[in-house]
Amino acid sequence: MSTATDDGVKAQPLLSLRGINMTFGGVKALKNVSFEVLPGEVHCLAGENGSGKSTLIKVISGVYRPADGAEIVFDGETISHMTPAMAQSRGIQIIWQDLALFPEMSVAENIAFQTLSGSRPRFVNYAAIRAIAEEALVRLGVTLDVDRPLKDFAIAQRQIVAIARALVGEARIVFMDEPTASLTQSETDHLLAIVRTLSASGVAVVFVSHRLAEVLDISSRITVLRDGALVGVYPVEGMTQSDITELMTGRTFDQNVRARNVSQNPVLLSVGKLSRPGEFEDISFDLRRGETLGVTGLLGSGRTELALTLFGMRRPATGTIVLEGRAMRFASNREAIASGVAYLSEDRLSLGLNQPQSIADNLVMASLNRILGGRLISPEKKRSLVARWIADLGIRIGKQDDAISTLSGGNQQRVAIAKWLATDPKVLILDAPTVGVDVGARAGIFEIVARLAEAGLAIILISDEVPEVYFNADRIIHMEKGRIAGWHDPRATTLKDLEAAVYA
Q1: What SMART domains does the database record attribute to this sequence (predicted)?
Q2: Cα separation of 359 and 451, whole Å?
């Protein structure tokens, strides 16, 4: 099958799939899906978590073998069953959402990893590895110390390393699964410029992102999946974010400012002139009972560092933290939790949840003292606590004992939130709570946030996605270079003005 280009010429697809079916344990993950990508095209693969996007990519990359009758054609060659080695040799590169990097290895070793592997042992040429890594980073316009271990870098820098590694090979088609989830706006803009450069050079890029503004900005066509089935393939021209959302979910969402006047609510948390040299300085604010306080700013603004200090993971050099009228000097996060402060990490995969462990174990890990029967854990209390929060937050699971990794990103995030709600907190800090979560699940998470605030929980909502804080916070702090650059009331400003202030 060929597709017309802008000049009306029929272009032969670089990659074409027809009749793709996949079943796992009786559940149909893909139902007769067709998919194609043109040479040099930037193509969006859209759908909610669990729609089949990752399964389709794994079929393309040879990880999964589809049911009989499937057809895979790459550059005119019909392939009965793609293997990972075949995919790699043909220039099919995948950047997975979980990055699949090696924290103990250096940046250079992670980027040039494919050059280190092979069937025969040989001496490692570190000079060549450094040169390969530096060249890849130059293509991205990024400067990193390639000799430092990857574990020394924040998640945003790790994402850049994963992208650089994918560009090292002779890529003909690159699948990017949520590549900008942890990047700032300026880093995202730069990445999109790199994607355009790749496209202009003839490399096809398949872009998977829950940030629909990026999808409209970068893609020429969109393939939409829903519940494992193909909804359709659409040109981007004329599409809106609402159009894509409706295609993905089959329903519409209203986006309205939720901000309320909470000035009469009692102050629960008071922060005065809090500082940590090199991270943040002179931070002061009051957080009221039932308030959602938004904190936004670019990477390096000190948002997460401030959160970790409020949670007892780091100690301030100067300043005060007063909780319910009592001055606090948390020596650890355990003390913070015991005092009623909870923190949802921005890195769900490695810091928020333990992927091999069960749903139940993840949910109760921060509140073990609540499920003791004497000196041992009571199975009945554990099951009861887990069942309560699964029902209250509408978490879709199979069994409590299933591994947390079996859940979609949105349901995993709900478990992570439930884990902290089970500690009965007074203050809940949500650091980028929708990273890697699709548009439908995001709406559900913010419904939970609104409901918790209405019930009296004080919430600090941290995000570099300005619309998230604008539509869901009562007041907004804009942080820049470790200081408060401004205060904003969503009822008295526009989203455009707030974005201009943050992204300027």
Answers
A1: AAA
A2: 23
Give the chain's length: 504
Give the separation between CA 51 and CA 250, rounded to whole angstroms: 12
Give the tokens for residue 486.
């401004």
Per-residue pLDDT reduced to its tens digit, 115-142:
777 667 778 888 999 999 999 888 877 8
Q: Please state which of the ranges 157-171, 181-195, 332-346, 396-410 shows the lowest mean pLDDT.
A: 181-195
Percent of all residues in the chain with a pLDDT value above 70, rounded to a whole number: 95
H helical segments located in 322-408: 333-339, 359-364, 379-392
449-479 b/e (C-beta count within 10 Å ≥ 16 → b) = beebbeeebbbbbbbbbbebbbbbbbbbbbb
Q: Are 33 and 51 in contact (CB under 8 A)?
A: no
Rounded to whole angstroms, the Cα distance separating 209 from 475 reads: 28
- CA 130 to chain CA centroid, Å, is 29
Question: Which residue did the predictor score with more confidence, 493 or 254?
Answer: 493
Q: Give the DSSP letter of residue 8.
A: S
Helices H / strands E in the chain, number of each:
17, 24
Q: From CA 109, how far away is CA 148, in angstroms rounded? A: 10
Q: How far is it, in rounded angstroms, from Cα 134 to Cα 112?
A: 10
SS3 431: strand
Q: Is 38 left (phi over 0), alpha (psi -120 to 50) or beta?
A: beta
**Residue 81: DSSP 8-state:** S
How many CA atoms are closer than 13 Å to the CA of 217, on its beta-carbon side? 14
**Predicted TM-score of the model (pTM):** 0.69
94: which 2 tokens? 């995948």
Question: Dihedral angle at the C-alpha atoms of 237, 238, 244, 245, nearest 10 degrees?
Answer: 150
Tell me the DSSP string of 48-70.
Answer: -TTSSHHHHHHHHTTSS-PPTT-
Find how far residue 300's CA is from the centre of its chain.
Answer: 18
Interior angle at CA 64, CA 58 and CA 68, nearest 5 = 125
Domains of the chain: 3-91+170-249 (3.40.50.300), 103-168 (no CATH), 267-340+425-503 (3.40.50.300)
CB neighbours (10 Å) of residue 7? 6
Please report which helix (H) or strand (E) contains residue 273, including its range: strand 267-276
CB 137 within 8 A of CB 88: no
**For residue 182, what pLDDT is reported?**
65
Look-up of token digits 């079916």: 21
Query: In one letter, which amino acid is 346?
Result: E
- The distance of Cα 112 from the centroid of its chain, to the nearest Å, equals 25
Computed from CA positions of residues 264, 269, 274, 280, in that sequence, does the dihedral angle turn out positive or negative? negative
Work out the pLDDT band at 276, boundaries 50, 70, 90: very high
Tokens (6 digits) for 435? 């990273």
Return d(Cα 259, Cα 498) in angstroms, integer.
Answer: 15
- The residue assigned the tokens 């921060």 is 366
Give me the residues paired with residue 429 across strands.
343, 460
